[in-house]
Amino acid sequence: MEIHNTKLSRTRLAAKPENERVLLLLLAHASNEINVISKLILMMRKGDPPMLIVDHVEGGQSFILMRLLIGKLHEAWELFKNRVQADRAIAEKCLPHLQPEGKTALEQLNRHFGQGSPLTAIRNKISFHYTDKDNLTEANFQQLPPTEPLQFYLSKTNGNTFYHAGELIAQLSAINLMKAAPPPDPNDNRSDAARTFEALCDEIISVSRDITELFGQLIAFLSEDAVEEVTTQQVPDGPKISTFSLPYFFDEVDTLPVQARPTEA
Predict the structure, then answer these.
(1) Buried b (16+ CB within 10 A) or exposed e, 58-94
(2) Which residue among 16, 41, 97, 232 is the one 20 to 30 A from 241 at the CA level?
(3) What are the E-state strand segments in the chain?
(4) pLDDT tens column, 248-259
(5) pTM as predicted
(6) How many other CB atoms are found less than 10 A from the CB of residue 133?
């Protein structure tokens, strides 16, 4: 694949107004985090898990990463609001130069966050905080059907332990912060919770796409006069992301010092 190695001039970057320089670097920082978490989510198992325990822990792992991404998307929007929209000089300089895709992304983000984003609610109440000031844990525990199994999967290795009951409640809390399940299709036999979860996934994908488009265009504009050199390099193609399957459970022996590992007969 081709990678365009874009070298920024430290002198030109230092000559920029501080608010532009800091904004550029923060936009790059936020974009990197969103990209990495998004790729990890794409690496989750695609096929059917071999057993129910694996289904529970890998599904929980995916939702944990999704909640982290939700929090980062909210924080990215706060960055944009505070350092672009609230800074008249930045807004007047940068926003008129957005390409059509960037303008559309900004319109959709303003609409999404302006009407009370469920992503913001999940970020504030679940993703980044354990204080549970609204007592969502107890409220959602009481909503569980009496037949719902509550399980802890315990292992001698902490990294292979998964407290599924706690994750189950966290998932239910997040799903219930969506405003409402979309109207059911006559041919859709899924539960309200399943349809609401799908709506949440669609919302995350949409907001992530719009933020990365908007931030990418702002980064290009703000860095244009600081570019010193661009070279094109060929790097080996990585493996197809569709072939990845990021498991939860790992080989416990592999974590032991070499001298402590059991020897093969």
Answers:
(1) bbbbbbebbbbbbbbbbbbbebbeebbeebeebeeeb
(2) 232
(3) 2-8, 227-234
(4) 999 877 665 655
(5) 0.90
(6) 8
